[in-house]
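Changelog note: in this version the structure field was regenerated for every chain. One regenerated record is shown below for reference.
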Amino acid sequence: MRCDGTGENASAYLLVQFEELADDAGGATPSLADETPEDLARLLEEQIARLQMQLRGTVNQYEATVEELKASNEEQQSVNEELRSTTEELETSKEELQSVNEELSTLNQELKNRLDELSAANADLQNLLVSTDIGMLFLGRDLRIKRYTPPTESLFNLIASDVGRPLQHVTHKMEYPDLARDAESVLKRLTMVEREVPDTDGRWFLARIRPYRTLEDQIDGVVLSFLDITERRQAENALRESEARFRRMADSVPQIIWITDREGRIEFFNRQWTAYTGKAYEPVTAGEIASTVVHPDDVALTMERFDEARRNGKTFLVEHRIRSAAGDYRWFLVRAEPYRDPATGQIVQWFGVSTDIHDRRIAEEALRQSEERFRLMVEGAQDYAMFMLDPQNRVIFWSKGAERIFGWTEAEMLGRSGEIIFTPEDRERGEPEKEIRTALKEGRAQDKRWHVRKDGSRLWADGINMRLNDEPGGLRGFAKIARDATLERRQEEDLMEAKRELEARVAERTASLSEALVARETALAQRQIAEEAQARLLRQLVTAQEEERTRISRELHDRMGQLLTGWLLELKALQGSLAGGEAAERLERLLHRASELGREIHTLAWELRPPALDDLGLLTTLANFVQEWGRQAGIGADFHSSGLESMRLPNEIETTLYRITQEALNNVARHSGASRVSILLERRDGHIDLIVEDNGSGFDPDEALYGPAAGHHLGLRGMRERAALLGGTLEVESEPGLGTTLFIRVPMGGGASDA
């Protein structure tokens, strides 16, 4: 190996040559010392030649390298320019990347917002599925359960571990054997299946099976929904039953019932239409109906009224004649009401009723004549004031007798308050209101007091105020009957004045007896005479009262009773000729009112003087009176007797015991508040004992008979005086809160006889 420096760059480059030497026989390496100079020169020349050749090659290689370097330099410059361009492009890309980064940040924020919205929507969807009342079941394409709502658990007996199970492996309560088959059909045909199915508990469900579509509109299973329609089914059943009931009801009423649309096209006729006209129901218009079955003279008015009702949206009302199947015409009252759509307020239908009023027209004239006869009958009773009041105590009827007794005419009294006939002091005490309250509560109220006439004069009226009810039992008003009893009142006052004067004279006589013992016998005799005179006066008063009561009772029974009986017979005869309708109803109310008036007049006459007392005797009369009184007063009452079953007592004793019983029971009804009364009448030791016992509030007898308020207990004093007239006694046992017992004992005398 030799290393030589070459060229001008010898310091930088070395030439290294490797020569291969052949092995000699002895294995020794030849050396330059062994060679000759010629060989050495040749060798050197050869080496120089090789070196020159190598140098030229090196130069050539160098020149080529330089060329290559120049080209590389140019390329490097080009690359450098490209790098500068690339750098500029990178700067631009950097800016673009920054812009893209900003866009990505914005997009990331939007995606975050969308994710939040998606989470909220997912939460809403989850809450919707949990809170909905609709059972929903989500199945995959293999009909395995993916999700379900809570209401589905009660239908399919699902638990959380059932997610992923096939639908066929899950039991359910619905009577729906084709559920799985319908689900497979929906997957194949991609059409919804809807069925109404019941469950084992009797509820009904609307089952809908739809394909489950993803957002990419891919079919990924089915969705089963079960909506509880039990109430709707019940409502539909109720509606069908209601429609059936409506048709049965419509067919059962005697009127013709019809329904049209807003333009008058017939939508419904009940059975009475065919029964009367002989025409079957067919969809025709109101105009066609009017032209075929309505009387030609009534067609124009009918259509005019119907068109007017349609324009104004008001009730359609007309009277016209309709031809029957036999060809004759009868009058009908036609009334139709519009039915409006609740949403729009527009008329959608007309509901009408045609009522046969043919008989009503005939009966109206008869009714007017009947009312005229009633007015003539009432006005013929000139001795009695009869008038009627409405519930507000305003006069609605005023008879001729009332005009004669009180002085006001009917025109002056109609609409005025009934308080006008009361005295100013009675109005201040509220007597009119008390009388109305009593009539409202007990059905009737006695009216015995001073009244005033139109001219200001006063009269004593003896009458009754009765409550009038309508058919349902509601208050219709009041009927008042009064009689001018001023003369009797004056007579009673004169008798009372005579009694007071007599008592005064007796007191004077008694005082004078105390002055001298010698004149005592004379004074006692005078007193006895005075007492006898007082007793005679009392007997005369009682006799006058009984005679007047008997006369009034007979007059009410004979005169008014005959008038009312004739009126009732005419009304009943007229009622038989009416077949129904408003006239018949009015006649029925008039007949009821007349019957009630007759009963009240009979009761008034009976209370004045019961005929049975003269005909049947005290025992039967008292038994009937106690029973009737208990019924009217609403108080339990029982009557017992002993030892008088086959005996008639003197008329004076029977009358006295009857009046005492009557007054005692009236006091019980007015003041005691009792719920039970017992009356005992018996014969004992030549006397007649009458015992009246109640369980009312009771009172202090001494205070009532002898106290400062004794003047307010005239009834008790009157009973005692009546008993004293017969030589009898009256004792009172009572305490506040413990009821009251009256003991009346009168001697039988010698006038008793066997019945």
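Spot check on this record: The radius of gyration is 64 Å. Residues 6-11, 24-29 have pLDDT under 50 and may be disordered.
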